[in-house]
Amino acid sequence: MRAVQIKKHGATETVEFMENVPEPQINDTQVLVAVHAMSINPVDYKFRQGMAGFKGEKFPLTLGGDFSGVVAQIGNAVTTLKPGDPVYGYAFVLNGGSGAFSEFVASNEKNTAMKPVNATFYEAAALPLTGTSAVQSLEEMIKIKNGQKILIHGGAGGIGSIAIQIARKKGAFIATTVSAKDISFVKEIGADIAIDYKTQRFDEILRDYDAVFDTVGGETYLRSFNILKKGGVINSMLESPDEKLVNKYDVRALSQFTITNNVRLDRLKEYVDSGDVKPYVDRIFDLENIREAFRYFETEHHRGKVVLRTQNVNS
Ligand SMILES: NC(=O)c1ccc[n+]([C@@H]2O[C@H](COP(=O)([O-])OP(=O)(O)OC[C@H]3O[C@@H](n4cnc5c(N)ncnc54)[C@H](OP(=O)(O)O)[C@@H]3O)[C@@H](O)[C@H]2O)c1
What we know:
The protein is built from nine helices and 16 strands.
């Protein structure tokens, strides 16, 4: 089968499109999926580069986590899926999968679920990590409620664009930070206030917010404390709680590590199938053009997700 692999960590040039990779073997709790589409997440280039916390041990390694496709085979202990099922999931190698950027993937049953009916294979592939990150953050960590005010950073990104739509469904008042060219996009998907982060300071505009969902980190995270009301909450995808700021502003700070399990994938499917959430696919690349896809994802502005496809796909 054809797959995208690395033999060492490094820049885009370390990525190789291989023609004759053996199909992955599944264990009792995995499914083998004929992959139709995949999407790129920041963790894929962090892993390719071998950044701290994202190092592989045995090479070659197949890159990628997010995928959609059709179940080809199931392990002996698998009960929730069967051959022929259209699915989506997360098969990152550091998560126990065989790597998604490949024509076939071995994915843990617990990280795989039926794909939304209301989504194409391309759209379904755009969802697993970002969509479950948004579900976990808003429903389980922040627990956003009707009428509350939330600031969502990076509103046109993979996570931010899904988070805005979930927060809108929950009835929240939503402010978001984006580049100027994304202002009308985030307003269309549900933001009440859109702030151009390159020319405006959100902490000089917003006050007394109930919650912040931080998908950016760094000084954006630090300045976010200032806009929270007492007792408010900030959840970050990148930063550990800053205790000094927690005490100074009398707020709660949370740090999220996303687990893309089938409970959250099923919840995401409900949002998509009800029409409340729509994934945004920015561009689709053929799998063999993976280097160009990484270059585009890492160096050019993308809105929503960058998707890859195999020759298995027809929609
Ligand atoms: N902890 C976990 O388990 C976990 C899980 C998933 C993801 N993450 C991390 O979460 C982060 C976001 O992921 P993603 O998939 O949403 O990435 P993404 O699709 O690349 O989106 C990031 C967004 O942030 C925007 N942005 C950049 N700098 C900004 C700033 N200073 N202020 C406001 N917005 C800014 C970008 O806009 P422009 O393009 O216009 O600059 C882009 O739209 C990544 O670092 C990722 O590694 C963590």
